[in-house]
Specification:
- The chain is of the alpha/beta class.
- 31% of the residues lie in helices and 25% in strands.
- The radius of gyration is 23 Å and the shape is elongated.
- The model is unreliable at 379-388 (pLDDT under 50).
- One of its GO terms (molecular function) is methyltransferase activity.
- Keywords: Methyltransferase, RNA-binding, Transferase.
- One of its GO terms (biological process) is methylation.
Length: 388
């Protein structure tokens, strides 16, 4: 179909397989994995669908031109030559975002400035008018990517990063990024067929993402705006049709989501965020110290959490804290698959349990591990020996 075009979805390190799989499930064509990105082909409706439904994408770019450059002047000339009036009115506003991996071009801010100059000058020369720069709510967000001497100009279809789902109005000290939370839950293999728990739930991000995964709710339904809504070819009827078809694929969830936090303000924030996301009916959030709790009932429990790392809480006694995590899991949570993420790799030694899985991920710029502890009912020794 001639209406199909190539797109690139950006993601976090280690989530490329998850994102590629999500795209295949959604119906994308020509899905190819890169490093921190996945390229695919689809039409305008699929672009809307990908922005609404992908859990592990941070941004979706639409490449419109690729060329070779050897100087900033080359960049200016190539961008100037492009037909910008099909994307933007002279009275409109734009923002430029640049990423540079090159020995020759080292300043991304200068590259962004040069690109902006070329677009603005082109409008001024052909229409006598020039678009304004608006970094917060531009009509068009342009992405410039330089890899050595190859430059790709793309339109940013998403606008603000897709981790900003729109349900979080209240956050605590270091809230986990929504895309990271969704990816960790997906990596943990949770399928919505058991109870789910976050014993240190902070502002409730893990619980919200887990609920949306369980019910197959598109994660970005609550967003105020996507970048493409300001484009000249914005089709609101098509968008609403896509939205409706995604909502028709939601499913029931017959288990419980449980969140604990020992901070009363975190509990209040988590409740508020789950309510904003219309997910509060699925979740019970309690003011509890995890180390003084036990699992209720015999059912299998799936636990994913993001304990403090030491970077967040300066007074944290890491050895004591992590050994308490191990003791609480061992004594109080039989029949539980417990996953935790930490960037304090030393701290994992104090848990005193042997992880059955370790997955390398990044939390912002910090290298971290997502680790799994399988807490068995009854005798663990025989089970662990089988895993050796």
């Amino acid at each position: 179909m001639e209406n199909n075009f190539k797109m690139l979805a950006k993601t976090l390190f280690g989530f490329e397989d998850l994102l590629a799989n999500e795209l295949v499930q959604l119906g994308a064509q020509e899905v190819k994995k890169g490093v921190r990105n996945v390229t695919f082909v689809g039409d305008k409706g699929f672009m809307y669908k990908a922005n609404l439904a992908l859990r592990t994408a941070i941004k979706i770019l639409k490449p419109i031109k690729t060329f070779r450059i050897v100087s900033e002047e080359d960049l200016y000339k190539q961008v100037y030559k492009m037909d910008w009036d099909q994307y933007l009115k002279p009275s409109g506003s734009l923002a430029i975002d640049a990423t540079v991996h090159s020995k020759q071009f080292t300043h991304s801010k200068y590259i962004a400035l040069k690109t902006k100059d070329a677009i603005v000058d082109k409008f001024r020369d052909t229409t006598g008018e020039r678009p304004n720069v608006d970094l917060r709510f531009p009509d068009l967000k342009v992405n410039v990517h330089i890899d050595r001497q190859m430059c790709t100009i793309s339109l940013d279809t998403s606008g603000e990063s897709l981790h900003r789902r729109g349900y979080k109005t209240a956050t605590n000290i270091a809230p986990i990024n929504e895309v990271l939370a969704a990816g960790l839950i997906m990596l943990s293999g949770w399928d919505g067929q058991t109870d789910f728990m976050d014993p240190m739930c902070g502002s409730g991000t893990m619980l919200a993402e887990a609920a949306m995964i369980a019910c197959n709710i598109p994660p970005n339904l609550m967003r105020k705006e996507f970048g493409f809504e300001r484009w000249q070819d914005w089709d609101v009827d098509l968008f609403e049709k896509i939205e409706e078809s995604l909502l028709n694929k939601t499913r029931d969830f017959h288990h419980k989501l449980l969140g604990f936090d020992k901070s009363p303000s975190a509990v209040a924030k988590a409740k508020e965020n789950l309510k904003n996301a219309h997910l509060d009916e699925f979740a019970t959030i309690k003011h509890e110290d995890f180390f003084k709790t036990q699992k209720g009932g015999q059912e299998k429990l799936h636990m994913v959490f993001n304990p403090p790392y030491g970077e967040r809480l300066e007074n944290l006694d890491v050895e004591d804290f992590y050994s308490k995590i191990g003791d609480t899991l061992k004594q109080g949570y039989p029949g539980t698959d417990a996953w935790l993420i930490t960037s304090n790799l030393e701290a994992l030694k104090y848990v005193g349990l042997r992880p059955s899985r370790k997955i390398k991920v990044f939390n912002a710029k910090l290298e971290a591990r997502l680790v799994k502890y399988e807490m068995y009912e009854g005798s663990k020794k025989g089970k662990y020996m089988k895993n050796d």
